[in-house]
Amino acid sequence: MVSKSKKPHFGHESMHTHSQSVEAAVVEQSKATAESILSSKGHDVISVRPTDTIHKVTEVMKEHGIGSVLVKDQNGHMVGILTERDIVRGFADEPDDTFDETAADLMTKEVITATPDTPLLDLLRSMSEGRFRHIPVLDGEHIAGLISIGDVVKFRLRELEYEALKLKQMIVG
């Protein structure tokens, strides 16, 4: 009886097939981290103060074409994150008063963060399980950047395009 858990041995340990090369490429891809994304996207983060009105926050978001801002105190420390979803909930709860409320009133205070070394797949898992689309990246106390689900998708698409190109090159010769 042949065990399915053992790989056949052909005596040519150093020979690799195309499928083994593809497998190696997939393993290499899994080493992508938050820093990999920030390196291509940039480290800039748009932030507001806890006392800024929602009206001001929406103007900032519109001006920069973004869906979230970090909320920082006077010392530059992150105290929360405010997203389009938080603002929509505010309007659902208090339609007439939301623009006059402050970032501190609507922001998410318990922020899930990543580090520069957080693997890409862990970022996706956190966002998917937590049902949020933005994750701040902290390097110790320093805010290294902010990653959106769109940033992850764009990064992964570039990787897939590169992998497809490499596969074509292997096939062609």
Description:
Residues 1-28 are annotated as: Disordered. This is CBS domain-containing protein. InterPro entries: CBS_dom (IPR000644), CBS_dom_sf (IPR046342), CBSX3_CBS_dom (IPR044725), Diverse_CBS-Domain (IPR051257). The protein is α+β, with helices and mostly antiparallel strands. The protein has one domain (31-172): CBS-domain, CATH 3.10.580.10. It contains seven helices and five strands. The chain has helices at residues 18-29, 34-41, 54-64, 84-93, 103-106, 120-130, 149-172; strands at 47-48, 68-72, 78-83, 134-139, 142-148. The strands form two sheets. A three-stranded mixed β-sheet has the order 1-2-3. Strands 4-5 form a two-stranded antiparallel sheet. α1 packs antiparallel against α7 (149-172).
Task: Assign the structural class, choosing from mainly alpha, mainly beta, alpha/beta, alpha+beta, or little secondary structure.
Answer: alpha+beta
Task: Please bin the fraction of helical residues.
Answer: 40-55%
Which architecture would the CATH scheme give at its second level?
Answer: Roll
Q: What is the alpha-carbon Rg in Å?
A: 22 Å
Strand order of the largest sheet: 1-2-3
Strand content: 15-25%
Mean pLDDT: 84
Number of strands: 5
C-alpha end-to-end distance = 39 Å
Protein name: CBS domain-containing protein
Keywords: CBS domain
Domain CBS: 38-98, 107-163
Organism: Aliiruegeria lutimaris
